[in-house]
Design brief:
The protein is an alpha+beta fold. It has a single domain, classed as TATA-Binding Protein, CATH 3.30.310. 27% of the residues lie in helices and 28% in strands. Strands 2-3-4-5-1-6 form a six-stranded antiparallel beta sheet, with helices on one face. The two termini are 36 Å apart.
């Protein structure tokens, strides 16, 4: 299935993202995350944070004592461009739940969402997944053929 993501910007930031800003972002997220926020990779231009975050209830949904639903999320911070990709790493949520989750993360992190993936933009990815699933299945005993480069 295609990934559900949005692009957000730091609302009040006019310079590149520094280590101190990343630390603040990590602290804000950790305050509400369901699991520890992990900085899984970092370079001079990009940092990636991964964690599970509570999925906000949809308006009109029954609010009982049911267990809180969480979802895995990845934040990719593009430091020089002051942009963040918020990616929901599961397809077990309804689209409205994923959108509410992204919005809540943006609020907590002090970000403003400027663009979101949608059904239309995800169509090519959906078609590619369908094509792969219709291809001849392989099993553990069947070696996969790989197109080796010609010399």
């Amino acid at each position: 299935m295609p990934c559900i993501f949005c692009i957000a910007v730091f609302a009040m930031l006019t310079t590149a993202v520094t280590t101190a800003i990343l630390d603040q972002l990590e602290s804000r997220l950790a305050a509400e995350a369901a699991t520890p926020v992990r900085r899984t990779s970092e370079s001079g231009s990009v940092a990636r944070l991964e964690f599970e975050f509570p999925v906000p209830p949809l308006p009109g949904a029954a609010r009982g004592r049911a267990a809180q639903v969480t979802a895995p999320v990845a934040l990719t911070v593009y430091k020089q461009h002051r942009r963040v990709r918020i990616q929901v790493l599961t397809h077990d949520l309804e689209r409205a739940q994923a959108d509410a989750l992204q919005q809540r993360i943006a609020e907590v992190a002090g970000l403003q969402i400027v663009e979101s993936s949608n059904q239309r933009s995800e169509q090519k990815v959906r078609e590619a997944f369908d094509a792969v699933s219709q291809a001849q299945p392989t099993t553990v005993d069947t070696p996969q053929q790989r197109p080796w480069p010609k010399r």
